[in-house]
Amino acid sequence: MKYIDLINKIKDPIFSLQDLRLLHLKIYPYQLSQWTQKKYLIKLKNGLYLIKDRQNEVNPEIIAFYIYQPSYISLEWALSKYGIIPEMVYSPTSVTTKTTRFFKNKITGFIYRHIKKDLFFGFKKVQVNKQIYLIAEAEKAILDYIYLNKNKIKNNDDVVELRWNKFEFNKLDNQKINEFLKLMPENTRKQIQKTLTLIKKYI
User: Fold this and answer.
1) Pick from 122, 30, 33, 46: nearest CA to 78
2) How far apart are CA 153 and CA 147, in angstroms?
């Protein structure tokens, strides 16, 4: 099969080897390697590709969702998006119920941190150019961050080092935070509440 035939058959900018099989497209591994070398395709990970000419149809969040599922955008990337972290974050950060992983490709690095299955909630679906990704609500992104970094936030200096935007932090919905906390196991809830109280005191 020629490359022009491939892109005429593939509707989405990102495709997997499984997609090719489902479409009964006979494409050999060496062809994918050649098209990647010629920069027609961007290899996102083993078995997953982005059509270079359609790169503007996706954003890093969408790519992050495709690379490793189940996952949703959270932690530093989400907090930056919500204005709580004032600095730019260059690697999308997600949480997953699978093993903690890091993927590096021509786009950027993609970070995935493991959380327990009973903490995998508090996110919403976003659609961009018919592509979707999942992202934590601001309140859940805060709780996810605290959960995975609670041992690093123990005093006033640690809170100051977070460099969080106090104005944006204070805009968070405390009722929603409490609702999310109620869904968590008791020990986890108590640990997060303790750290959250410290942050509210010194931010």
Assistant:
1) 122
2) 10
Give the three-state DSSP class for 16.
strand
Same structural domain for residues 131 and 166? yes
| pLDDT for res 154 | 95
Domain containing 92 equals 60-202
d(CA 196, CA 3): 53
CA distance 152 to 165: 19
CA distance 61 to 46: 19
* Cβ within 8 Å of residue 135, ≥6 positions away: 61, 72, 73, 74, 78, 81, 123, 124, 126
Determine the average pLDDT of the residues in 166-180.
Answer: 97
32 with 66, same domain? no
7 and 30 in a common domain: yes
Residues 43 and 124 in one domain: no
CA distance 103 to 188: 28
User: Each residue of 36-93: pLDDT tens digit?
Assistant: 999 999 999 999 999 999 999 999 999 999 999 999 999 999 999 999 999 899 999 9
Contact 13, 51 (CB under 8 A): yes
Count Cβ neighbours within 10 Å for each residue of 73-107 and write b for 16 or more, e otherwise: bbbbbbbbbbebbeeebeebbbbbeeeebebeeeb
- Going by C-alpha positions, the residue among 189, 191, 196, 184 that lies closest to residue 117 is 184
